[in-house]
Design a protein that fits this description.
- This protein has two domains: 211 residues, Rossmann fold; 128 residues, no CATH class.
- 40% of the residues lie in helices and 16% in strands.
- The chain contains 14 helices and eleven strands.
- A seven-stranded mixed beta sheet has the order 3-2-1-4-7-11-8. It has a two-stranded antiparallel sheet with strand order 5-6. Strands 9-10 form a two-stranded antiparallel ribbon.
- Strand 5 and strand 6 form a beta hairpin.
- Helix 1 packs across helix 14.
Length: 354
């Protein structure tokens, strides 16, 4: 899975155990991950046997969701991909937009890998047989590129010196497809809530502060869209990063967006993730969930912040210029709906890795 700020890797066992406890208590079979990102939580729910709807506005997220959630790994949908991945791995590199923008004007990738990404990305559109196969091949490219980048996990900046992994050659592998059923959507979460059919469980993990995922992962968006946009700044961000920002990223609009989503969401039980760096107050979240869903129980979890927080604050010359205020956060998992307290107690035996 690609590096991603806000990833729920360490929380996943807890989230899945809560969903399984809801299923044990109510017979739940359907789940929706409204802000799915890299689909990590959606994958966990699918592996547990739920029919999962994975939704996000990002183009790269739709590709990941189609690969991991919509494709039934027990079938033959990806059967032709192995030979095509071997073909893509054998392509010589070419100079193109990706190399110029992200390897020469910026230093996210070594140029020899950038040239291969340029060649592979163009060839994927030529050889892919339909949207499903295209998504599988693109997922393989995203995973491979993530393993040879020179960042701390965000695409807002790159390391002053090349990371050791950036010297490795890009190598595509077949993604590990998951057996089961689900669907991938690319919708505004608030719009989707008013239109979707009722689900048993909704997992809600909205953006929680001013940092836009569209900007944080602009390279993946460009790779998937293959649209060669105008770019700006040292980070060579897409021009549309100046404009594309969710209401959840704007403090003055975020609570209204969140409260409308919770009120409109047709779900019997909610699992809501939020942490102490976010715009919203703990008591306000509890009060809203109690008003809409009735019973609420909370699971607090301490976890380490992303690696950039540990490295520290540096200027453009690589000099340390500030002190990081904290290197751990507290995440809260709010369970809302009938029997929430009993559900949390049922799931309390599952350890959450640090």
């Amino acid at each position: 899975m690609i590096k991603y700020i806000g990833s729920k890797r360490t929380l996943l066992p807890r989230i899945v155990s809560l969903a399984e406890a809801i299923r044990e208590r109510t017979g739940a079979t359907t789940a929706c991950d409204l802000f799915t990102g890299t689909t990590r939580v959606a994958q966990g729910l699918k592996k547990s046997g739920f029919y999962v709807t994975a939704n996000d506005l990002a183009s790269y997220s739709e590709v990941l969701a189609r690969t991991y959630i919509e494709v039934d790994g027990r079938g033959a949908q990806g059967a032709g991909c192995s030979a095509k991945l071997a073909h893509l791995n054998a392509l010589p590199g070419v100079d193109g937009y990706f190399t110029r923008t992200f390897c020469e004007e910026a230093r996210y990738f070594q140029p020899f890998n950038g040239r291969r990404i340029d060649a592979i990305r163009a060839e994927i559109d030529r050889i892919a047989d339909g949207d499903v196969e295209r998504s599988i091949l693109l997922t393989s490219l995203l995973l491979a590129a993530d393993k040879v980048d020179s960042t701390t996990g965000l695409q807002m900046a790159y390391l002053k010196s090349w990371s050791p992994r950036s010297f490795n050659a890009l190598n595509l592998h077949m993604p590990e497809l998951i057996g089961g059923h689900g669907r991938a959507l690319r919708e505004d979460a608030n719009t989707l809530c008013g239109a979707m059919a009722r689900v048993d469980i909704a997992y809600v993990d909205p953006p929680y502060n001013q940092h836009s995922y569209h900007s944080n992962y602009h390279i993946w968006e460009t790779v998937v869209r293959n649209d060669a946009p105008e770019s700006y700044g040292i980070a060579r961000k897409r021009e549309d990063c100046r404009e594309v920002k969710s209401d959840f990223n704007v403090k003055g609009r975020s609570w209204d967006a969140f409260s409308r989503l919770i009120r409109d969401l047709r779900a019997t039980h909610l699992i809501v993730s939020f942490n102490n760096e976010g715009f919203f107050a703990y008591d306000d979240i509890v009060a809203l969930l109690e008003e809409v869903q009735g019973e609420v129980a909370v699971v607090p979890v301490e976890f380490r912040r992303y690696v950039g927080a540990t490295i520290g604050i540096h200027n453009l010359r690589g000099e340390k210029v500030g002190r990081v205020s904290h290197v751990t956060n507290r995440e809260f998992l709010f369970v809302a709906g009938a029997g929430a307290g009993a559900i949390v107690r049922m799931a309390s035996g599952v350890a959450c890795p640090s």
